[in-house]
Write a structure and sequence with these properties.
heterodimer; A: 416 residues; alpha/beta; D-Maltodextrin-Binding Protein, domain 2; seven-stranded mixed beta sheet; five-stranded mixed beta sheet; 17 helices; 14 strands; B: 297 residues; mainly alpha; MetI-like fold; 14 helices; 75% helix
């Protein structure tokens, strides 16, 4: 009896294995995808879950994902576009970064597929995925930048969240009087300084002008607003609002100084939440929008938006499958990423959120209440302009340039 | 043997793989770079032929930082010749004299060469850290707070801060070459000098160093061209910053190609580096050869 049972079991097992094998070898199509969701990336888990769920729902499609480290991916994706070696779906950054890809015809136009998802993916998130009024990218996360601050340190000196420039200066002065450097920043990795200056410039000139200037749309950088922004940055540098050693420390080192409570404020994007949540006392930290610095901007104008996105290779063998998979996966990553605190969902939230952190809630509210979202210079500017912008900020910080020199050099770069 | 040498086909067949590899990996890319350097090209779309425009902007533009980078490159080369090589020679002569634990020390000095530059770079970043780095901590302990600097973040100190790890890393490499050279010198010569009453210092200056000339020439070429090409350590430590204060041509080339998407301008810098390395290598060979011939004549 036992033997019979064993035999039956073996037969059954081999039958299932043959069946599954034939199913997977039959019509299954493989879609290749590149992302930056490496193990250290906040979205690693979300991508894993999304692919698992998608494959379960579509047994005829197998998604093969390869993940690369963020900085090296920038080089890799450019080289692969040039060499025509793109996978079916690839991660990229919208705005200026991918404009050359679209121009070179290395991104598929997605308007017809978008029809299906119109209800779930709001048009407001597609600003940087749209080139010449056509959709080329599928975003999954909305980000925002602002001031992350240490509530405990603010409370210690009876400080309120600054809403205007003068209040910000007052806050900085109070910290300085008590021997504390107000802002953490890295100038060695100049993109961190650029995040700060983006926010400051936005609040001095307003969203339309900063957009026009950074995208080379004929906006002069010599206008008063931009000079005002540069002078304000100069004021902060001169008063010692940034540590003198900022030119020599990396972003990680600067972030560590913030999360350990050495500096009270840090201007960067929503991704800082990850570092805060793994700090000893995550409840001590809060998020606020950058203060208003002139009448040209409102407190609800923010730097942020949806720059991270998936694009589809027009040379793919299975265009329909790849495009649909890209939309579906973006939707799932949006959900799982939001639930795990990796970022704010770009897609409509039609599910319950559990255990959302206070800081994520604040950022989410800021995005929903925002009157404008302008993505930061790293995505907005073309690569050459962005590199020069960072170099100029470094020179500004170490005192090689004053506010006027900086504005002139920026104008020369952006309006050559 | 002569038969084989006369067989042109055999020579051709046996050399072919090496020639193909060498041409494919080194020669052809150099010519490609030469061609790219004449283009205004973003690496993705079609390039536009602009002639020598890239070279012109390179040498005349004030904001590109190229002239600064060349000065830094020459400083590195001078440092390699006048600090690194003498120090390596000193160590090699000292070790070759025969001391306790000779092999141990040879290995110890060679370790930095074996380690990845990125690892060494991270190590030195920690050493230079303005808050908890060893350098500033020691200075503070000695009460020399005013001497503390953000070593990698100040224009006045960054070049020195970058110099030290680069020179330190490759001292062991040159030392090993020289040490091997000294060991291969016939020991009878040293013994004869010893019997004639020469001190070890005299032996070094009159016997070992002159006989070591071929090795020294190789070290000189490696040291100088290595300085001209240096990239990895600077990239890890400062990436040429702050504000071009530690920029060298190769970091500038990297920024141009991979950050600014300016393949043309980047290739022009690449060609500049290749030309200057070749020229120096040939020059050094020539200078040393002439002296050598005079001596033997």
């Amino acid at each position: 009896m036992k033997r019979k049972a064993a035999l039956l079991l073996t037969l059954a097992l081999s039958a299932t294995s043959i069946l599954t094998a034939s199913a997977s070898e039959g019509d299954q199509k493989t879609i290749t995808m590149w992302t930056i969701a490496t193990e250290g990336d906040a979205n690693h888990e979300a991508f894993g879950k999304a692919i698992e769920e998608y494959e379960a729902e579509h047994p005829d499609i197998h998604i093969e994902m390869e993940a690369f480290e963020n900085e090296s991916y920038k080089t890799k994706i450019k080289a692969s576009v040039a060499a025509n070696e793109l996978p079916d779906i690839y991660f990229t950054w919208g705005g200026g970064f991918s404009s050359a890809f679209v121009e070179a015809g290395k991104a598929m136009e997605l308007d017809s597929y978008y029809e299906t998802y119109k209800e779930e993916l709001p048009e407001s998130t597609l600003k940087y995925a749209t080139y010449n009024d056509k959709l080329y990218g599928i975003p999954y996360v909305v980000s925002i930048s602002g001031i992350f601050y240490n509530k405990a340190m603010f409370a210690e000196y009876n400080l309120e969240e600054p809403k205007t420039w003068d209040e910000l200066i007052e806050v900085c002065q109070t910290f300085l009087d008590n021997g504390i450097t107000p802002f953490g920043v890295s100038v060695k990795e100049a993109w961190v300084m650029a995040m700060f200056n983006d926010a400051l410039t936005l609040k001095c000139v307003g969203d339309e002008k900063i957009n026009a200037a950074f995208t080379r749309s004929g906006q002069s950088y010599l206008e008063d607003g931009f000079l005002d922004a540069a002078e304000k940055l100069e004021q902060l540098i001169t008063m010692g609002a940034f540590s003198e050693s900022a030119a020599g420390i990396s972003n990680d080192e600067a972030v560590a100084a913030f999360t350990t409570g050495t500096v009270p404020m840090f201007v960067t994007g929503a991704w800082l939440e990850g570092s805060i949540l793994s700090a000893d006392n995550p409840d001590d930290f809060g998020f606020m929008p950058f203060p208003v610095c002139s009448e040209n901007a409102q407190i609800t104008d923010s730097m942020g938006g949806s720059a991270d996105m998936l694009m589809v290779n027009p040379g793919t063998e299975n265009p329909d499958e790849a495009a649909t998979a890209a939309f579906e996966i973006a939707k799932l990553v949006s959900k799982y990423g939001y639930m795990s605190g990796a970022g704010i969902a770009a897609w409509k939230v039609d599910y319950e959120m559990e255990n959302q952190s206070a800081i994520s809630k604040t950022m989410s509210d800021c995005i929903n209440e925002s009157s404008s979202l302008t993505v930061w210079s790293g995505s907005l500017m073309e690569a050459e302009d962005y590199t020069e912008y960072q170099a100029l900020l470094q020179q500004f910080f170490v005192g090689d340039l004053n506010a006027e020199d900086f504005v002139e050099a920026m104008d020369a770069q952006l309006n050559q | 043997m002569n038969k084989v040498r006369k067989n042109k086909l055999a020579i051709f067949v046996f050399l072919l793989p090496a020639v193909l590899l060498f041409a494919g990996i080194i020669i052809i890319p150099i010519f490609c770079s030469g061609y790219y350097s004449l283009l205004d090209w973003d690496g993705i779309t079609e390039g536009i032929f602009v002639g020598l425009e890239n070279y012109k902007t390179l040498f005349t533009s004030k904001t590109s930082g190229f002239s600064k980078s060349v000065v830094h490159m020459l400083m590195l080369a001078v440092g390699a010749v006048f600090i690194q090589l003498p120090f390596a020679l000193f160590l090699a002569l000292g070790l070759a004299k025969g001391m306790k634990g000779e092999r141990f020390f040879v290995t110890v000095f060679f370790i930095p060469v074996l380690l990845s530059t990125v690892v060494i770079g991270q190590l030195w970043i920690k050493i230079y850290n303005p808050d908890y780095g060893v350098v500033n901590s020691v200075l503070r302990m000695l009460g020399l707070d005013s001497w503390c600097h953000t070593w990698l973040g100040e224009k006045s100190t960054v070049m020195w801060a970058v110099f030290i790890p680069i020179i330190w890393q490759y001292v062991g490499y040159h030392m090993l070459l020289m040490y091997a050279g000294i060991k291969s010198i016939n020991s009878e010569l040293r013994e004869a000098a010893y019997i004639d009453g020469a001190t070890y210092v005299q032996t070094c200056f009159y016997i070992l160093i002159p006989l070591l000339k071929p090795v020294l020439r190789v070290c000189l070429i490696f040291g100088v061209t290595g300085a001209f090409k240096s990239f990895d350590m600077i990239y890890v430590l400062t990436n040429g910053g702050p504000a071009h204060a530690s920029e060298v041509p190769s970091t500038l080339m990297f920024t141009n190609i991979f950050m600014k998407n300016k393949y043309g301008a980047g290739s022009a810098i690449a060609i500049f580096i290749i030309v200057i390395c070749f020229a120096t290598a040939i020059l050094i060979k020539k200078v040393f050869k002439v002296e050598g011939e005079e001596k033997t004549a």
